[in-house]
Amino acid sequence: xxxxxxxxxxxxxxxxxxxxxxxxxxxxxxxxxxxxxxxxxxxxxxxxxxxxxxxxxxxxxxxxxxxxxxxxxxxxxxxxxxxxxxxxxxxxxxxxxxxxxxxxxxxxxxxxxxxxxxxxxxxxxxxxxxxxxxxxxxxxxxxxxxxxxxxxxxxxxxxxxxxxxxxxxxxxxxxxxxxxxxxxxxxxxxxxxxxxxxxxxxxxxxxxxxxxxxxxxxxxxxxxxxxxxxxxxxxxxxxxxxxxxxxxxxxxxxxxxxxxxxxxxxxxxxxxxxxxxxxxxxxxxxxxxxxxxxxxxxxxxxxxxxxxxxxxxxxxxxxxxxxxxxxxxxxxxxx
Length: 335
Description:
- This protein is α/β, with parallel strands linked by helices.
- Helix content is about 15%, strand content about 25%.
- The protein has helices at about 65, 180-185, 260-275, 295-305, 320-335, and strands spanning about 10-20, 50-55, 70, 90-95, 100-105, 110-115, 120-125, 155-160, 170, 205-210, 215-220, 245-255, 285-290, 310-315.
- The strands form three sheets. It has a six-stranded mixed β-sheet, with helices on both faces. It has a five-stranded mixed β-sheet with strand order 3-1-8-5-6. It has a three-stranded mixed β-sheet with strand order 4-2-7, with no helix packed on it.
- α3 (about 260-275) links the parallel β12 (about 245-255) and β13.
- The chain is rod-shaped.
């Protein structure tokens, strides 16, 4: 019996959070034998804990917030007599993938962008502890019977969006060869198959150049189709993952057996424009795949005639032109 397991990728979640309330101050008076007028000795309340966000390269997605959409920090300890201050409550540190953008749902404004490993930011600060009556003592008020409550912690509902940080974004139609190319030139191992939408989730792989100790990150997103910006297909949800890339690889099936290479290229650029016009300003490398098929030769000539862009022919099946493509990418970033 075959068991199929669907692994979900969570790159967009909403969570409600509240930092810790400060502990209340205490009203107390010192009472000891032979000291009839000991005076006030009520301690202050402890500070409420913070909610801290930290970037972590080992965290793959935002699933922790999907399965636990509400987070609350404990209240700080209350003050006690004998000038004992309440204990502050522990802060919560929540780890998110590098590239996470956090937006306040009430204001619609971005409050945090996590761009580096180990980057740590306080999202919600805990409330201050209340004052005990010992702090209210003065020359005119020797026996204060007042204290203050702890300050409430901050509360907010936040949207978490994951935008992968990669040097290169790989874009193409289903079955154009994106996953195969990713397998050939990076350390990633995306699923491959002879059917559309083999790639269901974004995949970031490392292109290593051991001779120079350099490396590049490449993000492979699910294949786009016409109308992706209108929520058709799979790729529309993941276009955000190439927004931070410095260079885009547009891979085109040059065989023309399923679709027109010219139409594919035009439609891909249009989908990028409709998602975010700034994507068209990025440097592009056009890769013509499936050059092992006879029809690809004539199609490539026609493609180059109609599109004034440099095109790099490869065959993922025969693994020809792939090494040359790695050199081209290296020169783009390191020369």
